[in-house]
């Protein structure tokens, strides 16, 4: 059989109705625990040697399991683990890669809560960040790689400027140094961009956003490309023998690297972080995600087309000083956009008003269709002023480089009629300058 394409996998991936009483849609397994059958099978399940066996829903659940398999397939990865939020996905990934301490290279231009965590919380656990202004300054990135550097971490499309990270080059730099590249692909979703195709090792999502697409579930997922070799002294946590992995087939060497090879990362997150720290995704939330995912391609096609139309409209508005949307042909990053994002750069854009802070507030108060709130990737269109809400964590001296000014507004484009959205922005901007 030929490999199934994205639009087929988003409907059928990871699910066999024959295994679930022929139920056409994925059932909600709203239960905590699973009968182990016999004493012999119980022991095997506990050791993790029975494929697709479930025991306790904090560690794995069949509804969540379908979502995990489907999302792994959509990204071209080998395995995925779903967690309770995008922040949990980022946190577990960083801890699993840098456990016991180390350094990680990342840009300043990342999700506000992630930046806050990297700067103020992880250092207390011995994990330090080398933050750079321009992640595509490859000489600087290379110069920061030290013996205790554990990974490079980037967002494929940054927030709110939509700056693009050159994933293929960064993956090459990371691999030459024996470290993985981690990509937060939330803004793009696997429909617009598949980081693993360009060499990324681990992909994290806030599936709260475009993957689910309806603003009704908080969730996260970590996808593994399955290519990185964790059998390295740089990652001693993968080389330690773990009692729970000991079995007759590997009685002496039973570390994650020895037992699971290049599939060790997700296995270890599930058993060390999900099982022990417990930020689990519930089956009903997974079910809602599966429904949202079924229409991802149509949603994004329309939202991306509307985003481009709105970006072009904003460029013609005399009260707009600048539009930040790297999908525009006059963007300096347009060559990267064409290479990595043939279906479009995404559904988030931002613009700077040619006015005062007061006038910017008036735009927020005058929009009627756009909802004023800190979220993206919803079927509703959203507006926010990053400086006051989503990017408060960015230190003042760092804001200018990311265009985080009093006049900056970020839009997340939904599924409404594009002319109605443009009309809404037009009347709101006009009323702010009356
Ligand atoms: C929202 C978001 C997160 C955090 O996700 P939650 O699901 O809200 O925890 C992380 N990264 C990016 C890029 C986001 O937009």
UniProtKB/TrEMBL annotation:
The keyword Transferase appears for this protein: yes
InterPro entries: Cys/Met-Metab_PyrdxlP-dep_enz, OAc-hSer/O-AcSer_sulfhydrylase, PyrdxlP-dep_Trfase, PyrdxlP-dep_Trfase_major, PyrdxlP-dep_Trfase_small
Gene Ontology CC: cytoplasm
GO biological process, one term: L-homocysteine biosynthetic process
A molecular function GO annotation: O-acetylhomoserine aminocarboxypropyltransferase activity
Enzyme type, top EC level: lyase
Keywords: Pyridoxal phosphate, Transferase
SUPFAM superfamilies, A to Z: PLP-dependent transferases
Co-factor requirement: pyridoxal 5'-phosphate
Catalytic activity line of the entry: L-homocysteine + H2O = 2-oxobutanoate + hydrogen sulfide + NH4(+) + H(+); L-methionine + H2O = methanethiol + 2-oxobutanoate + NH4(+)
Chain positions found as N6-(pyridoxal phosphate)lysine: 209
Superkingdom of origin organism: Bacteria
EC number(s) on file: 4.4.1.2
Family: Belongs to the trans-sulfuration enzymes family.
UniProt-recorded name of the protein: homocysteine desulfhydrase
């Amino acid at each position: 059989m030929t490999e199934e394409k994205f639009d087929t996998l988003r409907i059928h991936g990871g699910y066999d109705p024959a295994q679930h009483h022929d139920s056409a849609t994925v059932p909600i397994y709203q239960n905590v625990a699973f009968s182990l059958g016999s004493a012999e099978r119980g022991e095997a399940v506990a050791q993790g040697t029975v494929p697709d066996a479930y025991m306790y829903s904090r560690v794995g659940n069949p509804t969540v399991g379908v979502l995990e398999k489907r999302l792994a397939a959509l990204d071209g990865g080998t395995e995925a683990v779903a967690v309770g939020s995008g922040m949990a996905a980022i946190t577990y990934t960083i801890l699993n890669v840098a456990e016991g301490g180390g350094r990680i290279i990342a840009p300043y231009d990342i999700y506000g809560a992630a930046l806050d965590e990297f700067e103020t919380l992880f250092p207390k656990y011995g994990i330090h960040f080398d933050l750079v202004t321009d992640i595509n300054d490859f000489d600087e990135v290379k110069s920061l790689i030290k013996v205790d550097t554990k990974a490079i971490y980037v967002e494929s499309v940054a927030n709110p400027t939509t700056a693009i990270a050159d994933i293929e080059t960064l993956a090459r730099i990371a691999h030459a140094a024996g470290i993985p590249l981690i990509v937060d692909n939330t803004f793009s979703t696997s429909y617009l961009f598949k980081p693993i195709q360009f060499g990324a090792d681990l992909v994290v999502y806030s599936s709260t956003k475009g993957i689910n697409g309806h603003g009704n579930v908080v969730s996260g997922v970590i996808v593994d490309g399955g290519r990185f070799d964790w059998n390295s002294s740089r990652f001693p946590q993968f080389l330690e023998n773990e009692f729970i992995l000991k079995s007759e087939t590997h009685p002496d060497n039973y570390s994650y690297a020895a037992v699971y090879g290049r599939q060790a990362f997700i296995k270890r997150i599930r058993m060390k972080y999900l099982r022990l720290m417990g930020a689990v995704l519930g089956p009903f939330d997974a079910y809602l995600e599966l429904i949202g995912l079924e229409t991802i391609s149509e949603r994004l096609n329309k939202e991306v087309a509307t985003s481009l139309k709105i970006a072009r409209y904003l460029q013609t508005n005399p009260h707009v000083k600048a539009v930040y949307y790297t999908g525009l042909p006059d963007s300096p990053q347009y060559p990267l956009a064409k290479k990595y994002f043939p279906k479009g750069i995404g559904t988030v854009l931002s613009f700077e008003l040619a006015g005062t802070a007061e006038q910017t507030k008036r735009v927020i108060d005058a929009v009627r269709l756009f909802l004023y709130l800190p979220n993206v990737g919803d079927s509703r269109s959203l507006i926010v002023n990053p400086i006051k809400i989503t990017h408060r964590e960015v230190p003042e001296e760092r804001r200018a480089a990311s265009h985080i000014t009093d006049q900056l507004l970020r839009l997340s484009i939904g599924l409404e009629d594009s002319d109605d959205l443009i009309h809404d922005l037009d009347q709101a901007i006009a009323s702010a300058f009356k």
